[in-house]
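Retro notes (design track)

What went well: tokenization of the new backbones is finally stable.
What didn't: we kept losing track of which sequence belonged to which structure.
Fix going forward: every design gets posted as structure first, then sequence, in one message. First example under the new rule, 442 residues:
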């Protein structure tokens, strides 16, 4: 199986990728597409089934774009993901001998998502996109989403049908620590609207979502689901995005260990709360903090890792480009009583350049960097700046093993050594895997 969960076989010397095929199976496949050096096929018949094949638990499996590994027993999913990380790290980095631990799986690999964004079309179908498509696959129950999210989604669809109203999407965020729920209703700017920078003009072309429907929705939703503590109406256009709060608080609170974090509508937060506790505990272990270190937290988002590290070090500075995330991070630092924390808004590369200029005028400097970049990984110059500053220890949190492997190679070229990688199964039943790498200056 390859990195996106397809079975890989050969027919007359030509490599074939087959969706849904499992390592070790013998299948009859039909070629659906020819490429220059490979072809794509689909299963016609399973001749010899894998012992790890299991019955998918979702009625729309194979149509929905999520959960591509439902047909694979969970214990083998974990083996597959561990091997996937090892293969990609060795192949892409070219470095052998890095210690890669067995993946840490979830005690309960179902109903783990604390956030679900359901898309809605003009026919009021509501669900997730099909793979490589914007076609909506409707469902009543998603087994990896929180149970209450499914119930709220189904209830809201009935409201839309009753009132003959369509939105662009419905997002539900659920705190696993406090059980608070946030509902976000979203609509897009009318395509015929001009591109004026004036908010009033930019929003004048929205589809007519009448106020009586919004008021009625708030009343019905909160009466049916008392756990809903926040409802907002998000209007986004080419130049603007405005969130109008219709009910309750502007945030809900989630817990990681003994810490609390306020989550606003557009905040990034790990979608698997139980997995996040494992992830950050591993990151803290790799940081090896004694209480005397000065720590830099790059791409810190809403400050979760910053706050969790704070009591274990002398000072920690979080850097994040998004204003809304920095604002949330500052609130979370105050909420948890962390006084040795500072947040700076700015692009990572620009901030590192400034730090590099200041390095020679300071007696002490950063000992550890926590890095949690987007899927595309790090710019080569970011790694060079980290090396120039002389940060001794890197804790790299990655949601993409291939870009992690590429960056491990770049760190190696700048004098660093990757000691250990710990995969964590943050996304059961999908091909995705999160990793934490411990990287040190030689």
């Amino acid at each position: 199986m390859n990195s996106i969960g397809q079975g890989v076989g050969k027919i007359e010397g030509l490599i074939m990728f087959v969706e849904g095929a499992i390592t070790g199976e013998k299948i009859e496949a039909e070629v659906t597409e020819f490429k220059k050096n490979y072809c794509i096929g689909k299963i016609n018949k399973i001749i010899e089934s894998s012992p790890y094949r299991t019955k998918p638990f979702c009625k729309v499996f194979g149509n929905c774009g999520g959960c591509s590994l439902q047909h694979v027993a969970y214990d083998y999913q974990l083996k597959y993901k561990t091997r996937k990380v090892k293969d990609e790290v060795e192949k892409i980095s070219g470095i052998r001998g890095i210690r890669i631990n067995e993946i840490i799986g979830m005690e309960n690999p179902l109903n783990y998502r604390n956030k679900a964004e359901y898309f809605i079309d003009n026919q009021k179908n509501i669900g997730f996109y099909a793979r490589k498509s914007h076609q909506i696959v409707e469902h009543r129950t998603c087994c990896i989403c929180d149970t209450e999210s499914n119930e709220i989604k189904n209830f809201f669809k009935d409201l839309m049908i009753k009132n003959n109203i369509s939105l662009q999407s419905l997002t539900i965020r659920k705190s696993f620590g406090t059980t608070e729920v946030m509902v976000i209703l979203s609509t897009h700017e009318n395509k015929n609207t001009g591109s004026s920078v004036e908010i009033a003009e930019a929003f004048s072309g929205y589809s007519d979502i009448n106020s009586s429907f919004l008021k009625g929705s708030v009343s019905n939703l909160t009466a049916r689901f008392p756990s809903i503590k926040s409802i907002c109406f998000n209007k986004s256009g080419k130049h603007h995005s405005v969130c109008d709060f219709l009910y309750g608080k502007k945030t809900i609170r989630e817990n990681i260990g003994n810490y609390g974090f306020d989550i606003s509508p557009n905040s990034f937060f790990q979608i698997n709360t139980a997995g996040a506790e494992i992830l950050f505990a591993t990151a803290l272990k790799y940081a090896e903090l004694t209480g005397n270190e000065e720590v830099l937290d790059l791409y810190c988002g809403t400050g979760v890792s910053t706050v969790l590290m704070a009591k274990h070090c002398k000072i920690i500075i979080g850097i994040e480009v998004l204003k809304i995330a920095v604002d949330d991070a500052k609130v979370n630092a105050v909420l948890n009583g962390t006084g040795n924390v500072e947040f700076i808004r700015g692009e990572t590369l620009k901030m590192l350049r400034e730090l590099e200029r200041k390095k020679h005028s300071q007696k002490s400097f950063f000992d550890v960097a926590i890095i949690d970049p987007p899927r595309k990984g790090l710019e080569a110059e970011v790694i060079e700046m980290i090396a120039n500053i002389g940060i001794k220890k890197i804790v790299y949190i990655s949601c993409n093993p291939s870009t992690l492997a590429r960056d491990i190679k770049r760190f190696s070229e700048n004098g660093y050594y990757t000691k250990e990688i710990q995969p964590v199964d943050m996304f059961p039943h999908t091909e995705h895997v999160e990793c934490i790498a411990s990287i040190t200056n030689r």
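Added context from the reviewer: The first strand starts at residue 7 and ends at 11.
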